[in-house]
Write a structure and sequence with these properties.
Shape: globular
Largest sheet: 7 strands, mixed
Strand content: 25-35%
Order of helices and strands: EHHHHEEEHEHEE
Radius of gyration: 15 Å
Length: about 160
């Protein structure tokens, strides 16, 4: 019995599953940096609930289970900030992360006028960097996370034109 993974906008009913999934998925990142105080691991349930209500949040579902998530919002400079992309460890490497990114980028472009997409990932996170490069992101700088982790800043210009 095979099931397909579907991508859809998150709802308030997804908040707890997103919260638990995020905690599971970011354990490997925390271990990579020896820092278990990274933002996705210390974020509160109420904060996730606020993001789902206010931001552009998509989930990947396998049946009723949320197996992936991504968030996006528009920053002060008009760019779309994409964050907290995660896919359940048992389903990584099957294109779900790329599908989630495309869904968020498309919605941010169509609904909020974004033409530049920006994200950050830890400097040691090679699998993340490989995914982001594969889908068109390029490194444009570095920053330091509030948790002290050195980050690589990546950007992509949108190619989402309205079609007839």
């Amino acid at each position: 019995m095979g099931m397909s993974v579907t991508i859809s906008e998150a709802t308030d009913q997804d908040v707890e599953q997103i919260f638990r999934l995020q905690y599971l998925c970011f354990q490997s990142e925390a271990a990579l940096y020896g820092n278990y105080r990274i933002d996705p691991l210390v974020q509160t349930l109420d904060s996730v609930r606020t993001e789902v209500a206010e931001d552009c949040v998509f989930v990947a579902r396998l049946g009723d289970e949320v197996v992936g998530s991504v968030r996006g919002t528009i920053t002060e400079d008009g760019a779309a900030a994409i964050g907290k992309l995660c896919v359940h460890p048992r389903l990584q490497g099957h294109g779900i992360g790329a599908r989630l990114l495309r869904a968020a980028e498309s919605a941010l472009a169509e609904q909020r006028g974004a033409v530049t997409f920006r994200l950050h990932t830890g400097h040691r996170s090679e699998s993340n960097l490989n995914l982001y490069r594969k889908v068109g992101y390029q490194a444009v700088g570095t920053s330091q996370g509030a948790d002290g982790v050195p980050m690589i800043v990546l950007e992509k210009q949108g190619t989402y034109a309205a079609t007839a």
